[in-house]
Design a protein that fits this description.
4 copies of one chain form a homotetramer. Chain A has 148 residues and is an alpha+beta fold. The first copy, chain A, has 2 helices and 5 strands, in the order βαββββα. Chain A has one domain (16-145): Hotdog Thioesterase (Thiol Ester Dehydrase, Chain A, Roll), CATH 3.10.129.10. The longest helix of chain A has 20 residues, at 34-53.
Chain lengths: 148, 148, 148, 148
């Protein structure tokens, strides 16, 4: 598992979305449970594909399954504070995509966590690697180009 | 368990908050899992107490534990659509509070779900019923009065 | 929402399954979050249908959606203690099933929670009420008969 | 983030525990959501410390917070199948512990996922790095020695 990219700021991400937190997100230590970070990363990535590219996840022939994920926890977070999640395309392959992710407490500059995520597209039926759906590729390519 | 109040509209609630949904909230049927509704109700109630009354949940001598909860599911919801959660004080006792709850898809009028929730306050140590904390009582009484 | 059945013992349930708990199930109060009870009820009901009747939930034309759920919390539970979940058929209609549920700490007699659950079967496509699938009905009828 | 150890078999782990799955663990694709793997890893690690060393997590002066986690997903899993989770001490430092983790479908040899987990102990109050609690160190050292 490669190192997640160096401390990124909000401006480094291709997309930034707001996420609310839940009472049940806080664990016995009174802070956001570590698994919740992955729920938020997942939601930010898929929400981008669904909302920006009008992709109907369940109607595609290819399914993006998670091959690898990782997170470095830099600062504690806790409900009820709302968060922002940043998504950045790190690598766009033929059948897989690597994303860098950032989690930020609302109105706080330094990232609270940095993540890394690899989606591999597989055929819905035979589960063998399949090309990234065209609509997904178009969306992510244009995001990379828009970085200027 | 008493019937939740009759179909309520957003205006009937004392407080209305926005909640984002997550990829993992949708279950195999592609809609919000039924337990998630309770996570959202819980978060709306506690978020109100924490944010509006500045209550530090873990610093109080009394703990509000759930004695009873219930939900009627009226319309399917699903990620990535954001939601609104309404909270209404139904009954303010000496040691317990009953809330009515409503879950609404953003920009949609009829409630998707109606809930009912009973918090009983207990002493943090001996777990015996204890009076509702003063700050909580003040907040909820003023909400009821503000209904006009 | 009708009252869940009176304090039931393990012997009153048609099926009893073991469930392990998770670190993330405990909330800030150090006890099982109230929404987790519903996850466990749901899993016990569907696990019964899947395992005992060989039902492939996603292959059926009818989908059992939750119309109503409720829980009375009687005793606190917490990770890492394993639990037992009891399921009992309360009412078998034409298109809906009402279950009573019980949650027990392993090796402890009195129930920690009692639940109530209404599944309504709907057509997977048009979402209109549909008859309970034959395999589900057969399983539950034989469970009721086996009570003797 | 370093690579998780090479495909491990059940015998490579210092501890192996059973975990039941839940209806809500399966996401829209009908398989275990990727964040659930972390809930299970977390539960297996903490469950070991709590049950084998009699550690009362909330009573210690030091808190083990997650500094880093990662997972490689090798095979799809899904509810209702029960799982086994393996925990192995990879590195025992002065203030931090690195664990390797494995997730196995019950009765299936190859691991379905391999994980990596870094706990850093901090003082409960000032949140600065603190020595691993003595009871935790003893437990893990004896596990490493017992490998023979």
């Amino acid at each position: 598992m490669a190192e997640p990219a160096e401390p990124l700021t909000r401006g480094d991400f291709d997309r930034l979305v707001t996420a609310t937190t839940r009472w049940s997100d806080n664990d016995m230590y009174g802070h956001l449970n570590n698994a919740v970070y992955y729920e938020l990363f997942d939601s930010a990535i898929n929400g981008w594909l669904i909302e920006a590219a009008g992709i109907e996840v369940l109607a595609l022939d290819q399914v993006g399954v998670v091959a690898e994920s990782g997170c470095r926890y830099l600062r504690e977070l806790s409900y009820p504070r709302p968060l922002e999640v940043g998504v950045r395309v790190e690598r766009l392959g033929r059948t897989s995509i690597t994303y860098a992710l950032g989690l930020f407490a609302m109105d706080e500059e330094p990232p609270a966590a940095l993540g890394r995520w690899v989606h591999v597209y597989v055929d819905r039926r035979d589960r063998r690697p399949a090309p990234i759906p065209a609509a997904v590729r178009r969306l992510l390519e244009s995001a990379v180009e828009a970085r200027g």
